[in-house]
Amino acid sequence: MSVMPKQVVAVPTDAGIGQDNSLVFAAASIVKEMSTSMMSRPVREVASNSRRYRLEGHRLHTATELTGPVVLVFVQDVPEQLPADVELRSRFGLTRKEACVARLIAEDLTNDQIAAELCISPHTARHHTERVLAKLDLRTRTGVRAALLGKDT
């Protein structure tokens, strides 16, 4: 099977249709495309101001005289990408190691997991975490991802 190029469907906030409708529209376009082409595996991305989704179509079996093609559309939430380390370092005054730790905190890793990932002691991981929280002006790690993305919490 060939993979079709990704198409992005942007949904502005004033579009008058909800995010659910845009997902249905993207899924319907995948089904329509797959009903006319036997060799495609179409992919769509639906973007709104708050979230991004990836939809991919898969044919379960070919059409028969009694039925049309059976198509399954997978929908995945695409997490927002964090800014590059250079930007994090300049915006928040983080060191290289603190920028790495901030990314790992944003991925919900614990201090022990951060220590294992960076080959440092848990005590050092805790120290880096405390410094990151202080530089981001946060008291808990729950707001780190939003702060790195520049969103108000």
How would you describe what is shown here?
With 153 residues, the protein is α/β, with parallel strands linked by helices. The chain folds into two domains: 2-77, no CATH class; 85-149, Winged helix-like DNA-binding domain superfamily/Winged helix DNA-binding domain (Arc Repressor Mutant, subunit A, Orthogonal Bundle). The protein is built from six helices and six strands; from the N terminus they run E-E-H-E-E-E-E-H-H-H-H-H. It has helices at 19-36, 85-92, 96-106, 111-118, 122-135, 144-149, and strands at residues 2-3, 7-10, 40-41, 43-47, 52-61, 70-77. Helix 3 packs across helix 5 (122-135) and helix 4 (111-118) crosses helix 5 (122-135). Mean pLDDT is 81; it is low at 1-17.
Q: What's the story with the biggest beta sheet? A: 4 strands, mixed
Structural class: alpha/beta
What number is the mean pLDDT?
A: 81
| Fraction of residues in β-strands | 15-25%
- Rounded to an integer in angstroms, the radius of gyration calculated over CA atoms is 21 Å
**Lateral strand order in the biggest sheet:** 2-4-5-6
Q: Which overall shape is indicated by the principal axes computed on the Cα atoms?
A: elongated
Write down the domain tally. 2
Series of secondary-structure elements, N-terminal to C-terminal: EEHEEEEHHHHH
As a percent range, the share of helical residues equals 40-55%
Number of helices: 6
**How many DSSP-defined strands?**
6
Regions with little confidence, pLDDT below 50 for 5+ residues: 1-17
